[in-house]
Amino acid sequence: MRYLLFQCYAPLVSWGEIAIGLERHSSRQPSKSAIIGLLAAALGIRRDDNQRMDALIKAVGFAIKMISGGTVLKDFHTAQVPRSERKIVYHTRRDELNAPQEKTDTVLSRREYRCDALSVVAVWLNDNSFSIEKLFDALQKPVFVLYLGRKSCPPAVRLNPEIVEADTIKEAFSKYKTVIPVPVKDTDRAKEIFEKYQNTTFSENYVVTYFWEDCKHSGFEETQKTTRYDMPLSRTRWQFIYREERMAVIREEVEGVF
User: Is the pLDDT of residue 39 over 70?
Assistant: First the structure.
């Protein structure tokens, strides 16, 4: 079977979870909606192109090798919202933003990010709507700007896509070498920070967590099964449905290219 593997690293990432009230939490590992959004942006699929977006969602299966879940950072945001009125219904966020200014208020929300999170993504195709080569070329030369969860989270290193032939997801991950982030400035402080990150993230017998969608070619021994509400259903209405996600925790040596 053919897999497309690529890495996701940035100083800040945000893999959105279910939003409750004014809290916007982030998962440790990438969500399906985030991966679909990244691939769609690379292919040049617009948000309102429901037909191509639905085809991509059905075609793509994916798994995650979470090397580092990062540390949590919370930020405060202000948002403009209209006051509640009995006879007025705002169906979309656009309707809210178009409300008269004298009828709007400001609310405070908290958004969660992950600092220095690093994951490898493995993608396979369930039908012939797209090709692995097309996805590979799109990640090399994306049509739209790519980001990891939010527009404020661009990748800090290249995605380094690679097509791998393997019988299982586990074997595909074992054939991929991560390009480890390096400091931009060659200073003693930068070297110290990089060495600390390298020692804590890429060490011998490091605990790596794998996540994958239900399939018969994982190659892992499942240790846990969870439900995530990150399968896009409607982009215009911001609706998601649940999917089952398998997990395995393995002690192994992580290899990378510096």
Answer: yes
- How far is residue 93 CA from its own chain's centroid? 23
- Tell how far CA 233 is from the center of its chain: 17
Q: What is the pTM of this model?
A: 0.81
Residue 254's nearest CA partner among 184, 214, 216, 206 is: 206
Half-sphere exposure of 119 (CA within 13 A, CB side): 29
Amino acid at position 70, single letter: G
State CA 132 to chain mean position distance: 19
Pinpoint the alpha helices (H) of the chain: 32-43, 50-59, 93-97, 132-140, 169-174, 188-201
What 8-state DSSP symbol labels residue 145?
-
Confidence of residue 185 (pLDDT cuts 50, 70, 90): low
Segment 163-176 mean pLDDT: 96
Contacts of 170 (CB under 8 A, 6+ apart): 210, 218, 219, 220
HSE toward the beta carbon, residue 68, CA cutoff 13 A: 26
Helix H or strand E encompassing 234: strand 224-234
Mark residue 16 as left, alpha or beta (left: phi above 0; alpha: psi -120 to 50; beta: remaining). beta
d(CA 80, CA 155): 29
Q: What is the pLDDT of residues 67-119, one digit of tens each?
A: 888 889 988 878 777 877 777 887 777 777 788 877 787 778 888 999 989 99
Between the CA of residue 98 and those of 78, 102, 166, 237, what are the distances in Å? Answer: 17, 11, 51, 17
| pLDDT confidence tier of residue 258, bands split at 50, 70 and 90 | very low
From residue 249, how far is each of 132, 151, 230, 255 by CA, in Å? 28, 30, 22, 17
